[in-house]
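Tokens as discussed.
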């Protein structure tokens, strides 16, 4: 997010902190395909510079949209992104946490104040959500009658859990499971992932994780959501089990400073479509994903014929080996380009479909009000 990078690299400490917080707050809007307005970005920069307070930012955003008499669908989405981002920035600048169910509900209310009519209220119905990463299937979210009891239980279990004596690897594994369970409850009509992420940042700070790589939420919020989906999805007929590996990679980058590659396509269940794109077999794609989950990028290397170390073979064999490796790397690069183009096409279609759906829903509501 180039708008704040200069402040983060070269700004004063206060400017760096504000800029990092804004990056996170704006990046989190991407989980719902929302982008901020140019007005929000300009106003945020004034806040980072110290020209205005966060209270003034929120008031300016409110006045800006109140002055618009007719909203388009895109402007409604931008208003949600702008208001929610400003609210999240205010929340994260306080370094406070209410680690209980009422605090969790209150957090949702503060994030979506002025955005959602039912902000801070538990959803009164069951839900399903078609997921791109599941090829249209849904996670089984908790039934609405048990929402409060489930939040009470998860938070109390975490409160009593002791991190004493655990290695950082074990801590990360536990945090991934805790956050996954809390997210699966899906307590609200909308805004669950953004609320979970902000709550998580507050909680991690409170238990001693002071140096959190907030770039992860700024740049990989959609990956974070898809990883939560895969951690909560099981389908015996499709041979799919709950898979926390993607979420753990995210948290290892977030908390340990690792550089694990975070690609949404590695989480997608539709191996057949992927095999068609790459002109290979279903079995190959399945094995690639399996190797990646087990060994990361090292698992994708071509090890055929590599029975001896480089220093154990003659010069001609070494040259042939290096040439073969270069050819393999070129092939992988070309496949990467083709896959990225295909993913761009899919994501553009996903964004357009979502925008059209929101627009149609809003038009239907307006027509219903007129009647």
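Sequence:
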């Amino acid at each position: 997010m180039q708008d704040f990078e200069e402040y983060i690299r070269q700004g004063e400490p206060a400017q760096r902190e504000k800029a990092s917080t804004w990056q996170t707050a704006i990046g989190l809007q991407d989980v719902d395909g929302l982008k901020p307005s140019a007005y929000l970005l300009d106003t945020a920069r004034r806040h980072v510079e110290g020209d205005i307070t966060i209270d003034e930012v929120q008031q300016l955003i409110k006045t800006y949209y109140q002055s618009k008499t007719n909203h388009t669908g895109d402007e409604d989405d931008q208003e949600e992104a702008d208001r929610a981002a400003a609210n999240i920035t205010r929340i994260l600048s306080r370094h406070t946490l209410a680690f209980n169910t009422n605090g969790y509900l209150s957090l949702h209310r503060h994030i979506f104040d002025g955005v959602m009519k039912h902000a801070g209220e538990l959803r009164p119905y069951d839900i399903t959500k078609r997921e791109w990463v599941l090829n249209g299937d849904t996670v089984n979210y908790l039934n609405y009658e048990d929402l409060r009891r489930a939040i009470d239980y998860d938070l109390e279990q975490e409160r009593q859990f002791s991190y004493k004596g655990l290695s950082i690897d074990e801590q990360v594994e536990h945090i991934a499971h805790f956050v996954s369970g809390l997210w699966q409850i899906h307590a609200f009509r909308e805004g669950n992932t953004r609320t979970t992420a902000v709550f998580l940042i507050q909680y991690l700070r409170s238990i001693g994780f002071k140096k959190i790589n907030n770039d992860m939420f700024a740049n990989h919020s959609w990956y974070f959501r898809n990883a939560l989906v895969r951690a909560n999805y099981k389908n015996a007929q499709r041979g799919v089990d709950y898979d926390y590996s993607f979420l753990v990679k995210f948290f290892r980058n977030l908390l340990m400073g690792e550089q694990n590659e975070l690609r949404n396509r590695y989480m997608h269940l539709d191996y057949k479509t992927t095999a068609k794109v790459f002109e290979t077999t279903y079995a190959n794609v399945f094995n690639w994903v399996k190797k990646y989950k087990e060994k990361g990028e090292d698992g994708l290397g071509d090890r055929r014929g590599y029975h001896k170390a480089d220093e154990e073979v003659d010069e001609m064999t070494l040259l042939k080996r290096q040439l073969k490796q270069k050819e393999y790397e070129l092939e992988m690069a070309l496949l990467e380009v083709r896959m990225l183009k295909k993913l761009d096409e899919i994501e553009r279609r996903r964004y357009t479909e979502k925008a059209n759906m929101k627009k149609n829903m809003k038009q239907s509501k307006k027509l219903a009000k007129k009647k």
